Each structure stands twice: as C-alpha cells, then as structure tokens.
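agent> Task received from the user: take the single chain below, predict its 3D structure, and emit structure tokens. No templates, no multimer pairing.
agent> Plan: (1) validate residues, (2) run structure prediction, (3) serialize to tokens, (4) report one or two observations.
agent> Step 1 OK, no nonstandard residues flagged.
tool_call: predict_structure(input=
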Amino acid sequence: MAKQKMLKTPLFDRVFKPELITLPNGHTVERPRSRTPLILLLFTIVVIISIRATGFNLSTIITRSKELTVILSKIFHPNFKYFSKVISPLIETIQMSIVGTIIGSLIGLPLAILASSNINKNKPTLLVCRFILSVLRSIPTLIYAYIFALIFSLGPLAGTVAIAVFTIGIVAKMLYESIETIDMGPYEAMQSFGASTLQSFWAACMPQILPTYLADCLYCFEINVRASSILGYVGAGGLGILIRERTGLRAYSDLGMILITLFVVVWLIDMINDYLRSKLS
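)
tool_result: status=success, residues=281
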C-alpha cells in the first residue's frame, strides 16, 4: 500500500516533501511546497541556453538599429510609380490563393469525414487519416512550394499546388473537430432506416457543419493570400518574385510600394471575409 501511495504522489512532492503544519485543533496536515521557484529556475535555464544557442546579442541589435531606421524610412516613402509593375504579380497571387483554397477545401471535406471518430468507426483508418493531416499541417507552405517548384518547374502552378496541400491539412483538421461536436441523432436515425454512411452524413450532418465549413474555408483563404505573397522566393510565382528582386537590389522604396499594396488587399479581404462569416454565423 505504501508503495502504491508513493507511485501516486507527484514527483515534485517526493523530492520536495510537503511541510507539516499543526492546526489549532491539534490535527497535523501537509502543506504542499510552491512550485513557482522551480518553474522560474527551469524557465531561466531554458532562456539562457536558448540565448547562447541562437547567438542573441542585445548590444548588436542596439548598434545596428540605425540600419533598421534607414531601411524603414525608405519603405515608408514608397515609389508610387512602381505600382504598375505590382498589379500583375498581385493578381497572380490572388488567383493562386483562390484556386489553391478551393481545391484544398474540396479535398479536405472527405478527409475530415474519415478523420471524425463519430463517423468513421474503423480505428486504423481513423489513425492513418489523422496522421496524414498532422504531416500536411506540420510542413510550411514555403517548403511545399520549393518541392513542387522542383517537380512542376518554376511558376504559379507550384504555388497553387502548395497552397492546396497546406489548405487540406488546415480545413480537414478544423472541420473534423466540428463534426465531432454535432448532434448525431438525425444521422443515427437515417442509418436505422437503411441509408448509407454518405447519404446519412450529407442529409443529417452537412446542414449542421456547412456554416462552419464555409467559415473555415474563408479563414484559410486569408492565410493563403498572406502566404502566397512570399512563395516567389522559391520560384512559385506571385509577389514573392518582386519582393526578392527589390530586396536584393536594395530598392526599398519599390519594396514599400509592394508591401502597401499587399496590406491594402489583405485588409479588404479580411473585411469581406469578416462580413461573410458574420452572415454565416
């Protein structure tokens, strides 16, 4: 019994044994010791190790801050004459985001169904689907773009496929979590009448998750517009090509025009998406 009790006792309490205090009525109780000093000590050790590993130097940041001021001053004085060259890559960026989001969202729907524990009762299939979705989410869009640029050659096709693959992981993840919270009564009723799994899901579950599904797709579109703007760094088309080119030439006024245009477009998309999501909710 004593051994079982020791195993149930937290490791901290076994190392730092609780303080015994005597109450006014004569009973003796244990008062656990505070974990705050230990947490602060571990946090400090982790921070120190991280600083040494990354070579972080505050004095370097302070001495080089003048360079940052010079660059920012040029960025905030954009070259408006450069706007005409921004339009075509900007449209390409938006097109990549739209097509990639649509393809990824459509493929993500059936994967979300297979990854939902209340719909898919086959444990191995469920685990495989969730593992695939975890892998898809763990790889950044820029890495996907680099891989697909090697496969499909340079251009917007690589960026579109990269956005689609990343969207599959995000939409499916958010959607299957929503599916697992819906009312399963209508679904089970249709199953009892002999309907197939697909028929039951489409008639009983889809109306419940449709607003959430569309909202998730809009959210992914917002993310993809931002992400697609830098895919040109690896040759996947869009604004990233201009950003890399202007940065390499130190044409920071032109870069400022690109960033301001991108900011306005993203802001407008956010406003439209917020409006649409409010209608869906």
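agent> Step 4: summary for the user.
The beta strands are 19-22, 28-31.
agent> Done.
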